[in-house]
UniProtKB/TrEMBL annotation:
<dbReference type="InterPro" id="IPR036866">
    <property type="entry name" value="RibonucZ/Hydroxyglut_hydro"/>
</dbReference>
<dbReference type="InterPro" id="IPR001279">
    <property type="entry name" value="Metallo-B-lactamas"/>
</dbReference>
<keyword id="KW-0378">Hydrolase</keyword>
<protein>
    <submittedName>
        <fullName>Glyoxylase-like metal-dependent hydrolase (Beta-lactamase superfamily II)</fullName>
    </submittedName>
</protein>
<dbReference type="InterPro" id="IPR050855">
    <property type="entry name" value="NDM-1-like"/>
</dbReference>
<feature type="domain" description="Metallo-beta-lactamase">
    <location>
        <begin position="24"/>
        <end position="200"/>
    </location>
</feature>
<dbReference type="Pfam" id="PF00753">
    <property type="entry name" value="Lactamase_B"/>
</dbReference>
<dbReference type="GO" id="GO:0016787">
    <property type="term" value="F:hydrolase activity"/>
</dbReference>
Length: 275
C-alpha cells in the first residue's frame, strides 16, 4: 500500500497550518499580512524551507516551544530561531543521535505503518542557527495578527506556549496535553506553568499541542476542553497527597503516573516541590 510522505498539512483556521511530521511531532505555520511564524521544527525528516515556501511567500520567524529533540530537530535548517534561555542548550549542538533514537521508537509505535520514512531521512546539519531568546509577554506581530508568548514551564524549564489572538488558539508545545510528561522539572513548577495558561484561558478556544496525529494515527484535532483543568487538578492532588499514584513508564523510563479526566501525568516522585 502506498504510504504518506514525511508530512501532512491541514489548514486548522484561516492562514493557519498544522504540519504533522510522520506522526512524530507537529509544527504550526501562522500567516499574517506581513510576516509568518513557524512554531517548532519537528524531528528534521522534512525539508521545511521548501514546504513553507509552498504555504507562504512572506518572511517568517521560527519559534521553538521547548528544547526537546523532537521539536528542535529541524532547527538547523534555519538561520535564526527563538527559544527560551532555559532550554537554549538544546541547540549547542542538536543531538541528532537522540533524534534518531526517538524516530526509531516512534517507528516501533507504528509511524511507518502510515509514513514512508526512516532514520536515514534525518537531516544532520552541523551549522547551528543564531539563537534569540523568548520571554514571557513577548509579542510576534505578523500584521493584522498577533501571537503572544507565555512561559509555561514544567515539561521542561523553558517550555513556552503561544496564543494566536485572532483565531483564539493556544499552541502549547508539550506543556498542556492529555499525556503530560513532567520528568525533568517538579510538579510545583508544572502547576505554575499550567496556572500561567489558566490566566489566559479566556483568550483561546482550542489547544493544539506538539504531537497531533501521534505515531500511526494521522488525526489533526485539538486537545479536549477539560485538559487544562484536569491537569491542574492532578498537580494539586499530587501536592496535597490525595492523588492515586500508579507505577508506569514515560517513553520507556519508569515514572509515577496519575490519571484524571482526559489527562495522564507522568512524573518523578522525588521531584514534587522546588527547594
Ligand atoms: Zn517535549
Amino acid at each position: 500500500m502506498a504510504k504518506l510522505k514525511t508530512f501532512q498539512v491541514c489548514e486548522i483556521a484561516k492562514d493557519t497550518y498544522a504540519i504533522n511530521e510522520a506522526g512524530m511531532a507537529a509544527m504550526f505555520l501562522v500567516v499574517g499580512e506581513k510576516r509568518a511564524l513557524l512554531i517548532d521544527t519537528g524531528v528534521g525528516l522534512t525539508d521545511l524551507k521548501s514546504l513553507i515556501a509552498q504555504l507562504t511567500d512572506l518572511p517568517y520567524d521560527v519559534v521553538l516551544t521547548h528544547g526537546h529533540m523532537d521539536h528542535v530537530g529541524g532547527a538547523a535548517q534555519f538561520d535564526q530561531v527563538y527559544i527560551h534561555p532555559a532550554d537554549g542548550a538544546a541547540l549547542s549542538p542538536i543531538d541528532y543521535d537522540a533524534v534518531a533514537d526517538y524516530v526509531e521508537k516512534m517507528i516501533r509505535f507504528g509511524a511507518t505503518d502510515v509514513y514512508d520514512c526512516s532514520t536515514q531521512d534525518i537531516k544532520r546539519l552541523t551549522k547551528m542557527p543564531e539563537v534569540k531568546y523568548l520571554r514571557d509577554g513577548m509579542i510576534f506581530n505578523l500584521g493584522g495578527r498577533i501571537l503572544k508568548v507565555i512561559e509555561t514551564p514544567g515539561h521542561t524549564a523553558g517550555s513556552c506556549s503561544l496564543i494566536d489572538v485572532r483565531e483564539r488558539i493556544l499552541f502549547s508545545g508539550d506543556a498542556c496535553n492529555v499525556n503530560l510528561l513532567c520528568m525533568w522539572e517538579s510538579i510545583e513548577t508544572l502547576l505554575s506553568g499550567l496556572r500561567a495558561i489558566k490566566a489566559h484561558e479566556h483568550e483561546f478556544d482550542r489547544n493544539f499541542n506538539g504531537h497531533i496525529g501521534y505515531a500511526g494515527m494521522p488525526m489533526m484535532i485539538s486537545m479536549p476542553d477539560s485538559v487544562l483543568s484536569d491537569a491542574i487538578h492532578i498537580c494539586e492532588s499530587i501536592l496535597e497527597g490525595s492523588a492515586y499514584i500508579e507505577r508506569g513508564d514515560a517513553m520507556g523510563r519508569p515514572a509515577s503516573v496519575v490519571t484524571y479526566g482526559n489527562v495522564r501525568i507522568c512524573f518523578d516522585k522525588d521531584r514534587l516541590r522546588n527547594s
